[in-house]
Request: fold
Amino acid sequence: MEDTKKTTKYRTGVVVSNAMDKSVVVRTERILRHKLYGKFIRRHLKYMAHDPDNSCNVGDRVLIEECRPLSKNKRWRVREILEKAV
Reply:
């Protein structure tokens, strides 16, 4: 058998909601260039992430990693808090 190494996906984003127990919603943003006009466009996605300690607050910059499905919508886990909100 071949040894296949799984690569874990990581994203950084800002917490936009922590109203749930042990869950946060993280908004990630990426900047891309328009193919024809060359203008830079901001695109965003929101991920539900598992926060077992309820340590994240709205406005915190966090690092999330992909994991197994934890619920219907949660497939990400909070790895660390990079920057606390002021």
